[in-house]
Write a structure and sequence with these properties.
Strand content: 15-25%
Distance between the termini: 44 Å
Radius of gyration: 16 Å
Shape: globular
Helix content: 40-55%
Largest sheet: 5 strands, mixed
CATH topology: Glutaredoxin
CATH architecture: 3-Layer(aba) Sandwich
Structural class: alpha/beta
Number of domains: 1
Number of strands: 5
Length: 132
């Protein structure tokens, strides 16, 4: 039987998710995997590639915005792949990215937009909408 501490932690987590508008079942971003990326492109899925760094203030500002958008039913099919700016220079080169906080949207195999350092929720949402 769960103790009070576990119940309080679960309650606090659920409350925090409600307060941010992020659903617990929102699709989480996955670390970039070439096979999964190729499969998503082949299936014609909407794709977001996020290039992030743990020390980046813009990346930290983008995270809750993207989390909230991923929980929106309109973006339920959005596949999100993350690339670490500090350790994955080969992938950055592959995508032609030079900076952290870069968001690249694809509709299937076609790149439909990219932004760098964007933290305005409505602009990020507009970019993701192009992919769906």
């Amino acid at each position: 039987m769960p103790n009070r501490r576990v119940i309080l932690v679960l309650f606090a987590s659920a409350f925090a998710m409600v307060g941010t508008g992020v659903r617990a079942d929102a699709p989480a971003p996955i670390h970039f995997d070439q096979q999964a990326f190729d499969a998503a492109q082949k299936a014609g899925k909407p794709i977001l590639v996020e290039i992030t760094a743990p020390w980046c203030p813009a990346c930290k500002a983008q995270a809750p915005i993207l989390g909230k958008l991923r929980s929106d039913p309109r973006f339920r099919d959005l596949q999100t792949f993350t690339i670490d700016f500090d350790t994955e220079k080969d992938l950055m080169h592959k995508f032609g990215a030079k900076l952290q906080s870069t968001l690249i949207c694809f509709k299937g195999t076609t790149e439909i937009g990219r932004s760098i350092g964007e933290t305005q929720p409505e602009w990020i949402e507009a970019q993701l909408e192009k992919a769906i």
